[in-house]
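When time allows, look over one protein, given below as sequence and tokens. The question is which stretches look regular and which look disordered:
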Amino acid sequence: MTTVAAYAAPAAKAPLERTTIERREVGEFDVLIDIKFAGICHSDIHQAREGWGKAIFPMVPGHEIAGIVSEVGSGVTRFKAGDRVGVGCMVDSCRECENCRAGLEQYCLKGMVGTYNALAENGEPTYGGYSQKIVVDENFTLRIPDGISLDEAAPLLCAGITTYSPLRHWDAGPGKKVAIVGLGGLGHMGVKLAHALGAEVTVLSQSLRKKEDGLKLGADHYHATSDPKTFEELRGTFDLIVSTVSAPLDLGAYLSLLRTDGALVNVGAPEDPVSLNLFSVISGRKTLAGSGIGGIRETQEMLDFCAERGIGAEIELIGASEINDAYERVLSSDVRYRFVIDTATI
């Protein structure tokens, strides 16, 4: 076991504080990663505050991890010391079920093992990226291409793949009209990726406050959802709407913006249930769907896609002592567009 410094939430809703954790010894198929940067995802806040249900404490959040391999196990063939790598939202799965065999480990039928707030195969809790080092099986480690800086790559491991996966699955591309709901950590990546895929991109945000940013990121249009005229003017417009917000929406209103056979895909997860009049989907043969991260193969595809096109996250680099302030700023939408922790400050 190796003792490393980390930032952890000791209990639900408690401020995160510096502590130490134990990392397992490097096994035959493991890689030891010196973490350089860790993104702050809204999911971290939901889980640290038990917004999504009972959680495991102490909790070391962080599933947007970028770093350098410092050691590999004797059986590792994919990586060597010095490689630039990343770790996303999962560190294991059963590897045997139908979904795992299809490269959809995120939908493992026995339940994938989260990078934090989960139990590993040995029954020990997993600890995430707000730490100096992590040991991960090579099969759940991603290669970060040279075309992306490590700090801007870290958020791709969650925000990037969470938006890339539904855009690819629902065929966003030339000739398609795509709307991204919310221009935050997830939404800004959705705009960049949908634009890079060739779609006509619209941002649907509460206000026009970030309009200039949205257009610079690649949006063709930008509308305020607080204006009732938006829903009148855009009725029946979109092939695909990806909602990145974690606040409950009037789903019927957003479904009305879809063309026949269009899809509204949720990647943001509100803490409270939402209601729906089923005529909103029956009329127009519309789809209300959800999507969760991506498999390892697709995540690598996304990283390579971003490197080829020079796409990284828009980040604000912070020291570890600023984590608690950053959480409050995320909740008040005061970040453009992803906080990333310089783990050298832990």
